[in-house]
Protein 1
Amino acid sequence: MKQLKYYTSILLLVFFLNIPQMDAQKVTVTAVPANDFLNTIGVNTSIGSRGENPTETLNAIGYTGFRWIRSGVPDGTGTRINHLRWLHEDYGIRFSYLLGTNNNIQGVIDGARELIDKVSPDAFLAFEGSNEPNNWGIFYNGEYGGGKYNDAHPGPHSWKPLAKYHRDFYAAVKADPIVGTAGYNYPVWSASDIGACWENVGMQFLTIPENAVGVDPEFPAGTTFADFACVHNYFSGISAYSNNQTWRSAALTGNNGIKSNFGDTWNKHYSGYTDEQLADLPRVTTETGTTITGGGTGVTEQYQGLTYLSCYLAQFKQGFSYTSMYLLRDRVDEGGNQTFGFYVGDSKYTPRLAAHYMHNMTTVLNDRTSIQNPGTLTYGFTGTVKDYLHDLLLQKNDGTLMLVVWGEKFARYAQPDDVTLEFDQTFDKINVYNPAQYDADDPEIGTRPIAVYTHVNAIPLALLNHPFILEINPKETGINAVNVEKTSFSSVYSEEHTLYLKSTTDLKKVELFDLAGKKVFQPENPKERYAGFKLGTLAKGSYIVRVTSVQNQVETHKIII
């Protein structure tokens, strides 16, 4: 952290300098709604299984500011759907559901319909095809397809059952009256690792075109598998500590990226889309990230945090509609995937720097409504301008422009380059933030400006390996807004004669009163932050729930059972 603080100090030395106008190649850029960018930021998590605790998962999601979760289908017991409800109601989280390995097409559709019915139509985001079917095979209509299905059927198996599975999955989704074209018309994302296919079944296309070359005739032109191309373009597949690491991974030609899966498949080099077609191909990433390897030449916690910020920015700038990092919290039920997480795999969900950096960036950029008519900004750069300098112009719903400028100069021992950002006009005020900061004694340091400029037309930046966020002529009410305004520590609702309770703190007692003030129910030892209490023979009607925390905070809620 010393290096970051040192270069922050350099920036502060020029705090009140009036930078003269210089000859920069300026361009006029139309802003993108900040809310649109934030909505693309996702993460993989099991929420309440595989060793995860739903309370801590909820807290972690709220802190980091993620907007969607790559998830499994609810278990049908009601417990998991309640967890999804809390996440959606508290933080607006949306969920994508993954197609499994064993004839569960209708199960995935039914899971989406349950989420729509019991939570909200807005809570569901998309369907996703098979997860890396070259590694994890499927069983469909009596046939094994793809990689290893189990020890008894290690494969490799034909890709024809995979193609049939995804063809039928797409058709079933689109035909469903709720999730399909006659209903909410949710998108279908393709299977991942399509480039591994060892038979040309046409899955390198979303819809097989008339001019497809060499595709098995069992899958004719017009066969549709998906609406979006899905990849697992791990930027860790590019050597660590190389410049533009996440930028190159997000490019069409990136590691296990769009071209090697949907243009020229990396295993057998089957022909797919042309480069021109790939440029406009709808795309998502449902896994990317890096482990912390430590050691003298390994990936450090700080490097992980920096690359996670850069990855979300690079993916969005290069056309990805959604990006989900692997992983929210380290997995504790499997080997080989430790230290990917924003959080350590302990009971406390100890945050890494990546979690703090994400909190800072999503807090500074926070917005919950997309501006309808984004404005423009004319600017350019002078100084040591290299190809690892990137920028993204965002705009909040209140009109405030947020210009993100970041470097991907990750090579070892790299030094910052002095760059001047120049505008075609003078602004009354510009706040500059560096979200890649954390100090345990001052945990919100990364959400406050490192410099405030007044009446300026140029800003100096020491560009290295983290974002600067420039808030231009900010609306004072919007500065440092938190992700979600929350004053309550508890929430309750009832369903099927059961009182469901969620709390962000430990509880002393929970009491249920009728409208005359008579206590009619009090569970013993309500210490669970997530809990469901059966209400037995209690008559239907309106009641008051009083919740008391161990700190003697008291909240009341009105419910109908």
Note: The longest helix spans residues 301-317.
Protein 2
Amino acid sequence: MNSPYRYWEEAFARNIGFVTLAEQERLHRAAVALPGLGGVGGAHLVTLARSGIGRFHLADFDRFEAANVNRQHGARVSTFGRPKLDVMRQELRAINPYAQVRSFPEGVSPENIDAFLEDVDVLVDSIDFFSLELRRLLFRRAREKGIPAITAGPIGFGTALLYFAPDRGMTFDEYFDLHDGMSMEAKLIAFFVGLAPKAAQRNYTLPGSISMSDRRGPSLAAGCQMCAGAAAAEVLRILLKKPGLRPAPYYCQYDPFARKFYQGRLRFGNRGPLQRLKRRLIQAKIGGSSDYLREPKPPAPAASDSLGREISTEIRDYLLQAALRAPSGDNCQPWHFEAQGNTMRLLLDPAADDSFFNVAQLASWIGCGAAAENLVLAAGRYGLSARVKMGGTARAGLDITLTPTGAAEDPLQRFVWERHTNRTLYDGRPLEPGARQQIEAAATVHGARLLLITDRKQIREAARLVATADTIRSSHRGLHEHLMRMIRFTCQEALARRDGFPLKNLEAGPAGEWLLRHTRPWPVMAALNHLGLGKMISKISYQGMCSASAIGLLKIQGHLPSDFIQGGQALERVWLTAAALGLDFQPMTAITLFRLRWLLDGKHAFSPTHRRLLQTLWPRYEQLFQVADDSESHVMLFRIGHGRPVACRTLRKPLADFITSDASLTSPLPAASPDATPLIRIAS
């Protein structure tokens, strides 16, 4: 069609009925300014173009990349590396070849802001959430020029909408209570709280996913599309002079996932006492002083770097970073790495954990096996095959040799960075069909066997066993003092030490945290044990076990260090598989480690009181967990299910603390002789 009128008549015919023909003509002549073409900007442009808006001022200096795919309209493989402005201008012309566009490829700046807003009917905010100073400038200049302005923010699955009129209502800075003396973090928090006063998304936003100090936060395509719909409706209301415009301090917010709609008026904007309180709470929760800790995922080097004969230092360090994310007893991180070329040696650091639980360093060897499995999984990202050679004596370690073979990537490697312990109460819902088979199969990859209990009666029996064994934890001086040494009671201590447990990670709640702080000295704990504190702690273990979807016991044949390393590899695959299935996981290791201590050192390793207690447990334990004989080793007892998001995660020490380049890699690992004595001699 060579006539714009004929094209408009057919292309926008289905708009007629909600708007009149005369109103549609008015939209063709209207001009809208979009200062960004990312997640919301691209959706705004397409929605407004299909509404019949005929003129646009478009600004963006960025290029599309893979990270934009989840939410940005123009992001696709064919557009990676291309300027967003060029791509979206092409999209616009594909919708309306007669649309008029004024382009600003350098973005909006103080130097060109007047040109950007020249002859514009409506400004629709579409710049990055964290570009607050530019946003303030745009809204201020738009008001000075008599241009109505809209901001619609994608908040989770929904949107929040604010309209700033040029002649009435609050200004942008007045509503959000922004002034030049504030820190950028305080400004961003004020913008966040004022944009969505009701925070409908709070129940499904994961802890730690928003950081004002790091300038990061999640965003969904659904939220961007909701923004576009809400903003388009408001733009048409403005351009067509329809009733219902309510400038700030009026707001509205809709979240289809939470199924909640809010609208109202913040009489004093963010200056109101409730909004000020929210800002302080948000500052404490997601600001720079937050107690939420989480190890960031390291950037992955380019895959092409691995195609040479020797892997690059960057890839080597990435693989070792993956190894460090493995679990270990009380997060003691009991490993050391030597590296030379494509070979890495993983060795045990026996000084890292000398607790009563870590009998003969078994818990540490399990952790080393898990670290090796993480490394092998991460290597697959780069097409590297790993040959793992284990020693078989008490000096056991592992040599991991990497070879570029184009091996397929194991999907589990993506969850190396997400795997964590969840100590919250689970909701008890059954496992989804097929989940049990996948988890059990994961254990067999390394020759282990997983006994998974899903029967509610048996889960309660396991809970009673664990709860009884856990009374020993609180009444054993060595275990109590070791736990207190491993708890990091402040965020600052956790960040400085980067091992053990941040207090929030224990999910004890305010009362439990108070109790942990005040029972650090053993005499206090001993006195409270006489008053029944140990039984109270064991009740928490019982409730946690009963809330699980399943209880698992991972078994491996043999008692050599290599057997426990292999068991650690199997454990990590099981844990990662659970994570990939969306299941939460918590080790419940006390009873299995007490059993190993009993077998290795005999019953006299325990006090008479603890000895009598354990003697009553073992027959029930062996019956419930189908213990065939003493030749099998129990790697870990754990619970899985669906809990709430954790309040905090554990940290890891820097890689530099664990790695050296060592020519001793040319010497072989100590091997087990055919008649090697088992590590565990069953005590009588």
Note: The longest strand covers residues 632-641.
Protein 3
Amino acid sequence: MAAAEFEGVIGRDWRTSVPWWPVQQRPQAGTPNVVLLVLDDVGFGQLGCFGSDIATPRIDELAGNGVRMANFHTTSLCSPTRSCLLTGRNHHRNGMGRVADLAVGFPGYFGIPPMENGYLSEVLRDRGFATYAVGKWHLTPDDETHMGASRRSWPLGRGFDRWYGFHGGETNQFYPALYHDNHSLRPERSYEEGYHLTEDLVDHAIGFIQDLRAVESDRPFFLYFCPGACHSPHQPPRRWANRYRGAFDQGWDRWREKTFARQLAEGLLPAATRLSERPDWVRAFEELSSAEAALASRFMEAFASFLSDTDEQIGRLLDFIAEVGELDNTIVVLVSDNGASAEGGPDGSINDVRLANLDPATTDEMFDRIDEIGGPSTHNNYPWGWTMAGNTPFRRWKREVHEGGVADPCIVAWPAGRLDEGSIRHQYTHAIDVRATILSLLEIQEPAVIDYVPQASVDSLSFAPLLAKGSEELDPLRTTQYYEMFGSRAVYHDGWKAVTFHPIAPLYDDKNPNDSFDDDVWELYHVATDLSETDDVAAQHPELLANLVELWWREAERNQVLPLDNRILWALVHPKPDQRNLSDRMRYFQGASQVPELVAIDLKYRSHRIVINFALPVGIAAEGVLLAQGSSLGGWSLYLLDGRLTYTHNLYGKTRQTIATPTLVTHGEHVAVFCFDKDRRDGGSASLSLDDGQVVSINIDHVPPAGFNGVGAGLTCGYEWGPSVGVGYEAPFAFRGRIESAVIEALGPKVRDPLAEIEAILSQQ
């Protein structure tokens, strides 16, 4: 505290001095708690209370005790929407015009929300709330998610007192890459012991509240709870794995029709709404072969089980809050961050990193492994048909700005707040408005300064008045909202929406991604009655369309959207400056925290050499991992097994190639050397030796161009993250001897496959 702020008296000694203490902010008695629940990749039509037949009874109960906002919108992508929820500013103003992995050197795309855009957690912390983040974060650039990084953008650097969760867009639900506050850790149990991430997240959320109540009986808390569900991999716990067997055999076309009928009957949509047509690039379910149909059904069964388990776990969290007598006076807001995801491709995927490496599994291979879908050996994601169905009744999906990408569920409940329980509201709202709504319900004003940083203006408008009884006919508070994602654009204004799609790659449209933005064709919809965008009236209202397009340009300039840029390849070739002194020789240390793949030494498509000096004391078995990267879903491992030095190359779970030295490892000091020479486009030759003894060699048929592993299992020394890269052992399979030195040298130039790298990034958001 500056001396000028001290209100006591400081004399020569205590006799002539008067002490004074600064007033600490304390919420008024009776201030409610806040729980903000953020689902991931859950489409408008996938919750029971939004028309689905997937069982979500606890979320449905929340809707029955609260208000469903049936015209709620997001940005169409994970990180940008989350930045909107927490800051109340549009995503480009947060520097989150896209995900941080594709940051470019313009203010709207820097990839880190600035401090002048304070988080809701920072506001509530300064008003005396306990603040907790649990689950997915995805607001820190990948190159700052390692243990040697600055914590400036981690949860505890942005107003949260505690955090338990994971960085990035996704993680394995059985072997997640976890963080607790500011450190990395492995799950305490394994899949075989019944571990599942969502249950673990709820356990820690409950634990945080218990710790608070053990010392403060009435201090309100803000809980930002973000499960991995239902982002891929769709991995339900074992007890849920077969709950939906046969439930989706009817296929996506019929399921979609039934969902739409329930939505109309429930009053979720304007009466004139029509079901949008199935796009040309999605096959009719009846056109699938028997194997394709069986796979499609199984993919959706896994998703539904994942969602229903998440519902059950959310119920367990709310039950605990009720048990301590606080649920009635807890504001609960539940949203999804964007529409259903199309990242599984047209046929679905058993390992998204294979899509990233441009080597998708064939139908025959997936069918042979159909019983593995949803388990730890797959990173599964459903096909486009179920994406379309999940966004019923809308067009398109996540990453795009037609309604299928940006129209999402939103529920607000607060029993003590006398909301219009069980009601539905059709006024237009947006993710940026959640912040102002929460602060309005708490009767808290936006601060002008947070931690001595003057705050930028907020875009958030409170929709709290719409939650009261009798507010059905009130005019919407938000009348204008722009959208932009990877060059696709839209603007909503007074019940009308102008929208244009611009591709990032030749995914499913005939449009050329390199075409000028000026050549994009704008569509026009009266979404006040045609919410599903089925009747393009651009030709009938050219002047209105022109005005809306001009409005979009004004909003774009005001919100740091410009310049328009869908050049993902360019962003990869010209990445943001890396502040690290990168080296082609790195040393790793036994038992240290995992190093995320993005910041570990880059061995993809590159020759390299691994040298490990280790000692095996008397009485210690010759077994355990020396150095590894990845998991059963892809990677490599150098380890001792059955007394022999062994190396396994795991090509994203598709194939494993293993070599081992013939000489048994004895007690004492040893040197292990592995070399890989990339002598052809897709693969190369590998050799392994122990103590300058016999060299064993193998041809590695294929090395991944874009990434070893897509679910957060990084590089580890002395153990594996899990599930195991190789066979015949179970992770972590820790080495009990001493690793004196573990060094990797990258040899020769890095050979890149930019198209694969693009897919890698897009498949994980």
Note: The chain has 14 helices and 29 strands.
Protein 4
Amino acid sequence: MANLIEKKLKELRDKISEHEYNYYVLAQPVISDYEFDQLVKELETLEKENPHLITPNSPTQRVGSDLTKEFNDIRHKSPMLSLTNSYNENELFEFDRRNREGLPGNEKVEYAVELKIDGASVSITYEKGLYNIAATRGDGVTGEEITNNVKTIRSLPLKLNEKIIEKYELHSFEVRGEIFMEVEAFRQLNKQREADGEKLFSNPRNLTAGTLKMQDPQIVASRPLDIFIYYLLSENEKLDSHFENLKLLKELGFKTNPESKLCSSIEEVVKYCREWETRRDELPYEIDGVVVKVNSLEQQRILGSIAKSPRWAIAYKFKAKQSKTKIAEINWQVGRTGAVTPVAHLEPVFLAGSTISRATLHNMEEIERKDIRVGDSVFIEKGGDVIPKVVSVILDERPAGSKPTEPPKNCPVCNAELISPEDEVAIYCVNALCGAQLKGKIEHFASRGAMDIEGLGTAAINTFVEKGFLNSYADIYSLEKYKNEIQELEGYGEKSYNKLIEGINKSKERPFAKVLFALGIRFVGAGAAVKLADHFLLLENLIKADEEEIESIPDIGPSISKSIKEFFSKEENQIIITKLKAAGLNFQAEKKVKTSSVFDGKTFVLTGTLPSMNREEAKDKIIRAGGKVVSSISKNTNYLLAGEKAGSKLTQAEKLDVKIIDEDEFKKILAESL
């Protein structure tokens, strides 16, 4: 009897999964909605009678009832690299030239082209053909787990085609895709919210990204999210090309973009880009360009990657859509670094999926270059289809008596005199006690990407600063002394206060990289913070390091190293660090286990073109083996790794008696030392 029930459950689950695929992926249903609902009800009844036989990947388990209280960090097995952007056809031809020259014998290159979906990137792992874990892209190295929310997307299979899994030995693998919302579904959602008197969503992409981070999967399931899968990562994958992989993904049961195409030449790629730039509005979903990839996986391997993006892929970005509006006024806002930037307040206008009422003017130099004035009629666009900006002024429509825009002489928040550094176009408020800077720094510190302190949002920060509870972000960890005052504030009480303190205490568990990012050191983003933490392990090591050592880390340049040294040299920051240490924050990274190497502590300089690896790959191998890479030769340099066309660095190394090695010797030493 038990075997018969299990057999029936499997039959129902397979049938429902097949019909979901037909409906949500192929858009070709073969049964009515009523018949489908009856199958689901039959499965639900049978599972209710036999709860011990319910599986996590049953169609009835897409929508969980448990709230996601936190989104745990997940380090990607392989970095989710960003793509280099191109904005004209000449850059595509240059991309093709670099690829052909980077391959032995100037090989012919085929390209797989896909529409660039304007959504949210996701990484999903499957184990034995079953849906397992999903994570956001995050900073490319570390994302946040959103497994329960992604599971609600009906076009995403929870169980894959078993025969295909066995055929290609895909027992454990990862796919990557783009989650999006169709334009019409977005409009209908907003139409309903308008009828209910609720605030409207700005655009499909922002709604998609926000929905994926909601705590309640039942609300997520009510939102019409969809997904295209575009990439497969597997050690056992046996195919030779990206386009074959797209076909395999479809065989497995994934929804892939039907407009993908294999092009035999870069001229064919350009033709495809031209076509879809004119046809983009015909699609039911938003796109902002085309992704172009070298089709051969072997050629991809040879071409390799630079620090943040693969050499074998590029994004061709469409020209941004424009709208005409009028500048009502120009205000100046103060950021957490003290930079004072101009913002244009516009007569509201609809553009690229959202209503725009503000646009950045960047800086005074930009205002003067375009001669932007209050009252001007202007064309605006979304830079990269994201940030609204003023493109040009319609001079013929300029009102009589218009006056040029003047920069402020004093801070609009604290009235302190502003300064303009010689080497920068920005103007700054250097008053460390400026309220706008303070609020901005605390807001950054408490933000989700940094210390992620629940209950400490913009409104709370504004109130606490104005009440004098917070004079720096270090004071967050002393808020308990204002318990009575906080509980008496409007909107607060014992429950809200306890939630805030719980969030503050939980933030003490954040890893060193998050703490380092939270400090708000200029130019130190989330990705740079991870690299710095992994390299130095202790805050004290970073503070003691000179600029050259800091710059030896991949992707860490002079602007970052200089900013770090300036930050830790200031007495007020030293006081804050002392307070944060006393509060128990984590200023130590977990040490990665590595074997002893002759490269430990050795300094390398790289020059010339290496036969089989690019400089970033060589740099990475040196750092992983305990060495460091600097840009210039000195008497302290231990090795010069030289390739073809080594140039002046080779001469300098010979003069200073620095040991010179080629790639073969480098590989030999590396192999012997590990």
Note: The chain is about 40% helix and 20% strand.
